[in-house]
Structure formats: C-alpha cells, structure tokens
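user: can you give me the structure for this one chain? tokens are fine.
assistant: on it. calling the predictor now.
[tool input]
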Amino acid sequence: MSQQQAKRKRLPQTISATEFERLIEVPSATSATGKRNRAMLWAMYGCGLRVGEVVGLSARDVKRTGKGAPSVHVRNGKGGRDRVVPIPSPAFDAVESWVAVRPKSRWLFSALNGHQLSTRYVHAMVTRAADLAGVYKVADGNGERPISPHVLRHSFATRLLERGADIEQVRRALGHSSLSTTQIYLHVTDARLGETIRGAFEGEIQFDATDEDLLRRIVREELQRMGAG
C-alpha cells in the first residue's frame, strides 16, 4: 500500500465539546480581532465550513432575520457547489458580536482594514489557539501537534451523526458531491458506539451526566437493531 493510500484510509480526527470550549476561550471576547477569530472558529466547528469557504463569505451570505433559523449560504464551495447551512445559536451569537464591530468590507470575515483574510492566516490562527488551549491531535509516531481547521470540520460532521443526523443530511451539510466521501465518518461513530456499548455493560468507562440520556438511547437502539437482525 502506498503512503498516499494509507493516508486516505486514516479516520478523521476530531475534538470533543470540552476541547472546543477551551479553544474558543483563547481569542479575546472584547477585541475586534478576537471577536472575528471566535466567529471563524464557530463557523468551522458549528457549521462545518472549509477554510476557503470561511474567508470567501460575504456579509450577505449570512441570513440573520426572517423566517426560519439563521443560516449561512456557502457560494461556490468545493466543486463549484452551493449549499445553505443552519447556524447554531452559539455560532450565530459569535457572528453577531463580530458584525457589530467589523469594518466596511465585501468580506464577512475581513482584516481590520477591510481586506480579505488569507487561508494561511486562518490556519495559523487555529494552530496558535490550539497550542495555547492544549488541544492537540495525534501525529505520526504517536506524537502530538495542534489541531488544524479541518479537524473542526471533522468534529462538526461526527457530532451531527452522534446526535442522530443521517448520513445524507451530513453529506449535504458538508457539501460533498458523493455519499462515499461522507461515509468515512460512519467508521468514527461506529468505533465510539463500540466503546459505548462495551462500557455500558462492562463498566470500563465513565460517562458525564450530560451524556447519560444520549448513551442510553444509543445502546437501546443498537440492541433493538441487533435483535431485529
């Protein structure tokens, strides 16, 4: 197997909600730059946007009022595809905080002089915030390195599946052209489901009280599925 093939078979790495809470606290909640960076972190973690999609957003791409939940219109995403993604409340609040102080610009997430941000800046911002927050991913040789923006997108997809979204819904939210591209996330949730079931019956792991209802539902549904088979 080539090195490139091995790389394609690696499961997506993700972070937990607790790790994201640490990450989001790194940018200042009061400075303009901090508000913008917090909003961009939420756009990747809470909406699953790619870095290029984040820096390419215009102010008109965020629907903040009217019928339905707030949403972001991703125009000309990868492969030239458009999609509309609902914005969860914490992400929307972060965007609104930035919109209140942003300079006049055609770009939603602009530099303070109104110019478009580079993808390189966003990568560096995420790396620095992750390093300061102690949020790492496993690197080659079982070492650790700060997470990349794409880990936030992976976390978005995995969290949707864990909360009951079906694979087609996740595909549309991510903007994948093929369902086969999205299906790699099923392997991540399958691995976690196995840990959940083993832990529930063998007492090997402890769960947070906030996760207890979710885990009970997962175990119940899996047992029902196994019984039906």
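assistant: here you go. The first strand starts at residue 62 and ends at 63. The chain has two domains: 15-146, 151-228.
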